[in-house]
Write a structure and sequence with these properties.
Elements (H helix, E strand, L loop, with lengths): L5 H9 L14 H7 L3 E6 L4 E5 L2 E4 L2 E5 L4 E6 L2 E7 L3 E4 L2 E8 L2 E8 L2 E7 L3 E6 L2 E9 L2 E3 L6 E6 L10 H9 L1
Antiparallel strand pairs: 1-2, 1-14, 2-3, 3-4, 4-5, 5-6, 6-7, 7-8, 8-9, 9-10, 10-11, 11-12, 12-13, 13-14
């Protein structure tokens, strides 16, 4: 009979049966951190919304997950696929946006499903054109940009209301609600 080395016996006894692959493991902290939503964008009065976290963007018109290698997978506004993200560009099936940062503001522009999109953001104002819709908004509260004449507005909660919201999550959330 073959002799089993004592070290292997000790290792076999130290590994509990519940630690084997057959038992599902509880969610780990990194998964929970990816799922945690830290920001939200809501259009007013329509109440279209999208929330996001470090690795996810969710809403009625968006469901994207960060693959961890510069690619986001899922769908946004009926566009399914893989979206490649770099510091200056978001591109994928029928979506191409270019990011240009300048001091406290930035401009992100391009096309989504053949429609021209331009979003300009500064600490005091927010101007977005999506196809034939125009949002020319001023900051009226810490979390609210609105049209002074009482027209549409955008409420930004959590990280979205901050000076440097998560990129590309914030852009994906805006594109989903505009």
């Amino acid at each position: 009979m073959a002799r089993i080395p004592p070290l292997l016996v000790a290792l076999a006894l130290a590994v509990p049966m519940s630690g084997l692959a057959a038992d599902p493991a509880p969610p780990s902290a990194p998964t929970q951190a990816i799922e945690a939503m830290v920001g939200e964008v809501i259009t007013l009065p329509a109440n279209n919304s999208a929330a996001y976290g470090p690795g996810r963007v969710r809403g009625p018109k968006v469901n994207l997950t960060d693959d961890g290698n510069g690619e986001w997978k899922g769908n946004i506004k009926d566009l399914d696929g893989v979206f490649r993200v770099t510091e200056k560009r978001i591109s994928g099936g029928n979506l191409n946006m270019v990011m240009d940062r300048d001091g406290d503001g930035w401009i992100c522009q391009g096309t989504v499903d053949g429609k021209r999109v331009r979003i300009a953001f500064s600490p005091d104002g927010f101007v977005a054109r999506y196809d034939n819709r125009l949002y020319d908004l001023k900051r009226v509260a810490a979390d609210l940009w609105a049209t002074p004449s009482g027209g549409p507005g955008i409420r930004m909660k959590g990280d979205a209301a901050g000076k440097n919201p998560y990129y590309p999550q914030f852009i994906f959330a805006l594109l989903a609600v505009l």
